[in-house]
Amino acid sequence: MVLTDVFAEGMQREGWQLIDGARLEKDLRLEADAVIIGTGAGGGVAADMLSQAGRSVILVEEGVLATSKDFQLREAESYSRFYQEGMTRTTQDGAISILQGRAVGGSTTVNWTSSFRTPEPTLRHWASDGDVTGLDIETLAPWFERMEQRLSIFPWELANPNNDILRRGCAALGWAHGAIPRNVKACWNLGVCGLGCPTNAKQSSLVTFIPDALRRGATLLHRVRAERLVFRGEQVDALEARAMDPTLRRASSVRITLRAPLYILAGGAIGTPALLLRSQAPDPYQVLGRRTFLHPSIFGFAQTADEVHPYHGAPQSIYSDHFQWLAGVTGPMGYKIEAAPLLPMFASVVMRGHGTEHWERMQALPHTAGALALLRDGFHPESSGGRVILRSDGSPTLDYPVNDYLLDGVKRAYLSLAELYFAGGAKAFHAAHGDSAVYYSWQEAKRAIQEFRYEKLRFRLGSAHVMGGCAMSDNPKRGVVNSQGRHHQIANVYVGDGSLFPSSIGANPQLSIFAIVGKVMQDLVSG
Amino acid sequence: MQESVSRRQFVRLGASSVFLLQAALSPWKLWGMMQGEERNWSVLRTKDIEVLRKIIPEVVGWGDLKADDAELYLHMTLRRLDQLLGDLADASRGDLILLLDLLQFPVSRMFLGLWSSWDKARGEDIRAFLESWEQSWLTLKRFGYQSLVQLIHFAWYGTEAGQKRSGYPGPSATIRAFLSRSEGESHGVN
């Protein structure tokens, strides 16, 4: 059996146009019908649809082009090469770790494949509270279907022990739960999705939309950083970019200028607002980069009698939305419960703590199950998210205050994880909180969790879902772009990524990005 | 906005210490140059390594090991840490370097909770010091704790020895043959 490498074959047989910035020696100028900045879920769909409509397209990606053969499944190497800031990105105050991909395919190259449709309450909230039009569940249904078909999205029924304990717990407690749909084809069930898929089973942008666009003649520039948009009048005239050095740690002196009548911004919900901020784009109502959401996530762990091997098997296959809408869409913060796969480096950091206690917990890794709760931010007046700001060197960071509204959700989510694990048969539970000991019964855990000190930097908060910052709204005072994704003040700029969302999604966002950007691009090419 | 105040305090403490630091650290620098060590590290300085050699075993908590193993593990962790620091955003790396500076300068080191000098500090002193950071009411100290501890764990558990010691058997057997076969091959796209 031979594992094919999509890019190696495409380059050889079809002459794909790939330009590696790190190998450029001279400045470069290119023109096309459209420049797409970013190659993740949004950039991939945009390239596919625009090239399908016969437009010539240039894709710009800061990260490396790594394909199946490059995914050697070593944690340290993957995190360093394929994640923003080597997986050490945090919010400005260090309180929330942010996992974002940085590679061709963006986060779709390294995510855990969970693919949910945008929940209906979220879409209704955007319409009623955010002046978003034309994104109701009926309009989007064909887009979800189309993406599910294209990306081979089906509920994954083969739960590994790390997920099965959640299923057992939910069943015992009567909590609503289900199988997670995943975008995989002939998946080997290895569990290393976060390190890049070595078998091309994961239907990421990297192996689907981007190769399709390349077959139609698109040009992909990788290891190239988009620096700023240059304006002429009220339109963007060019994108100025810089080649990266081979380590991706800094830009080289090689300059790249890209010109097109149309620019699609798809650099993710930190990168896209940052590009507009660096470009001093018009922002008359001070909405750019504001209301950036994270699904701040907390972690809990079970110790089990049988081996769990929390690093093997599909990372996420069981979810519970029991607490997601329980107190209403705009009530106390809701959350979604899912498994957290535990490769050693990742586990060591999410578990928090130090010394002998941490060592012993790590020694027990084969007998440890991990879970997380994704907190749904952006629906309540006290949940206004964070703000993307620029450091003096032009690099972006996110100022995201951790407030009492969020902390109340954190406490309830810890209680839920503990209750769930004991109901699922756990021997013991501990939370990724500095005040947590190991607890041997639900009653003991419950008492202790209520007494934890709920302040930032006392517990692990993480995010793998950055959303918002260039929100859609037909009201220019509320959003950076209109409901069709077009910038309110710049006619030839569209946003095509998760920055579009007026709140968090309330589910892992990749399918929302694929589908909503698909619709935005359809409106663009047919309008 | 509490945190940005803390961060400013952090930076101010750093700035006010710079002059004294430079004076205090120059002998170390000289010593480092004499050892010829500085050329081998991309971010860490010899004086950082002295401090980290004391902190790492207490953060990882590997306890009593054979002296050779302990030395090997320390070395591997420091090497990974040095690489990791290169991945950090410039601003985050700057914060870390500042933190390491503050840990070395006696006044700021005492402010941060370690009373004995690094060469005299015993394991229990360092454990108490880490504990006091973790439990502190100052977000500044908790920020320092979280940043440093996270990087050290990332470094150690990123090494092959660290991965093995956690009981992780590596990727499933079904994929291993493909990995070893394709290892080192490149199709020239990156």
Structure description:
The complex is a heterodimer of chains A (527) and B (190). Chain A is built from 13 helices and 24 strands. With 527 residues, chain A is an alpha/beta fold. In chain A, the strands form seven sheets. Chain A has a six-stranded parallel beta sheet, covered by helices on one side. In chain A, strands 7-16-17-18-15-21 form a six-stranded antiparallel beta sheet, covered by helices on one side. In chain A, a hairpin with a 5-residue loop joins strand 19 and strand 20 (396-399). The radius of gyration of chain A is 22 Å and the shape is globular. Chain B is an all-alpha fold and 190 residues long. Chain B has nine helices and no strands. In chain B, helix 3 packs across helix 7 (139-157) and helix 6 crosses helix 7 (139-157). The longest helix of chain B is centred in the first third of the chain and has 34 residues, at 2-35. Residues 1-6, 13-37 and 181-190 of chain B have low confidence and may be disordered. At the A-B interface, helix 1, helix 3, helix 9 and helix 10 of A face helix 1, helix 2, helix 3, helix 4 and helix 6 of B.
Average pLDDT taken over every residue of chain B: 80
Alpha carbon gap, first and last residue of chain B: 42 Å
Of all chain pairs, the largest interface belongs to:
A-B, 74 and 60 residues
Helical/strand content category of chain B: mainly alpha
Shape of chain B: globular
Mean pLDDT of chain A: 97
Multimeric state: heterodimer
The strand count of chain A comes to: 24
In the CATH hierarchy, the architecture of the largest domain in chain A is 3-Layer(bba) Sandwich
Bulk shape of chain A: globular
Strand content of chain B: under 5%
* Alpha carbon gyration radius of chain B: 19 Å
Put simply, the count of helices of chain A is 13
Biggest sheet architecture of chain A = 6 strands, parallel
Helix share, percent of chain A: 25-40%
Spatial extent as radius of gyration of chain A: 22 Å
Percent range of helical residues of chain B: over 70%
Corresponding CATH superfamily of the largest domain in chain A: FAD/NAD(P)-binding domain
- Please indicate the count of domains of chain B: 1
Number of helices of chain B: 9
